[in-house]
């Protein structure tokens, strides 16, 4: 494509089990830095489950077991010495439904930097909050009411606030699980524009059910089906001439 | 290819092929009649071809609207997307073939008012060959037959060679007898139009290949030599 890319995350033969049920059946994937990677596939294909492996969100589910290797910058993120909380500061996440804390707009963004001790002073913290809100393209809309509750914002604003919160800890990777499915088209466009800008500094991985959204925002697309990645390629290739019959059927809306 | 979950989408895709075939049939008929008007020195038929061109133009405008609606409303992907985009390009190519057939008919009107010369029969042969390629490429489209499409694509070189030979012949006539310049120029335009139609047929071949295979056919198509050496004018003796 237009710029050289380094590999940010490598997964090798990753399996995920929920009790007896094998949700991911051996996924090996390389996720590039400064690239938006889209995961697409029908419901239950494992794309969200796999996304959650990338910052160990699945650790919170008792019956969930992950095997195989996932490396961030060459280091195993499931290694004994890795603190999942520290990991999640490096690998941020934005969810389907905007979920701001029941706190002020300011405190929503300041929360992560505070618990990770990223600011030495109030001025530092102010700067991080402003920078994050600016990066999330919501600063102008909230700068005069930073003390107002985050839950009082519109859906689209809440989602951008959550993105600001996710990037306040200066992560390297941003995981987004259907970040626009609860948003109207204008808010969606704003978030997509934001994703486009975030790519300069982060590896962004987005799970989406919208083919058009995957096509619009990503450079690489992985097609998940029944716990496997059937096809992983340049987004332009996937949407004009996919190699796999199942990919073709899925993206063109045919019976599979 | 399995069916779409939304059945109306399948119906619209089917309609694309039907409309292209209809336009193709009309373009082929226009070409056929234009050639007949030349062969039979039939100015009345030539006038009919000229008048009928608006039908093809109308079909193209309608098709374009239909295809743009489909892009906007269905947002086709992968092979469906290739199908719609290729059809848009094929439709405008067929419309141009129609324009060239009309232009040939215009020349026919002039030619019919003058003495026939020997080269006319070479042009008729070239016309038949061109029409055959157009007909075959339309069959290839209807059947999504890439082998036939590639065959048309490679055989256009024969048309190019016929054109070059007619070109040389006409230049020779014009140098021999300057009274023939007007007539030969008209014939040259007819030959050039046929040569262009052959090129359009190869373009449709490329579109068929793209629809089916998802990648371009490439640019290694055999082409006729550039005109090469022309007969030299006789030295002028003052």
From TrEMBL, chain A:
Domain ABC transporter, first and last residues per copy: 9-251
Pfam families: ABC_tran
Coiled coil: none
UniProt keyword terms in alphabetical order: ATP-binding, Nucleotide-binding, Phosphate transport, Transport
Keyword Flavoprotein: no
ATP-binding listed as a keyword: yes
One GO MF term attached to the UniProt entry: ATP binding
NCBIfam families for the chain: 3a0107s01c2
PANTHER family: ABC TRANSPORTER I FAMILY MEMBER 17
Protein name: Phosphate ABC transporter ATP-binding protein PstB
Gene for this chain: pstB
TrEMBL record, chain B:
PhoU domain location: 20-107, 123-207
Keywords: Cytoplasm, Phosphate transport, Transport
Source superkingdom: Bacteria
Gene3D superfamilies referenced in this protein's UniProt entry, alphabetically: Phosphate transport system protein phou homolog 2, domain 2 (1.20.58.220)
Alphabetical list of InterPro entries matching this protein: PhoU, PhoU-like_sf, PhoU_dom
Keyword Mitochondrion assigned: no
Compartments in which it is found: Cytoplasm
Entry similarity comment: Belongs to the PhoU family.
Chain's role: Plays a role in the regulation of phosphate uptake.
Quaternary data: Homodimer.
The protein's name in its UniProt record: Phosphate-specific transport system accessory protein PhoU
Native organism taxonomy: Bacteria, Pseudomonadati, Pseudomonadota, Alphaproteobacteria, Rhodobacterales
Recorded name of the encoding gene: phoU
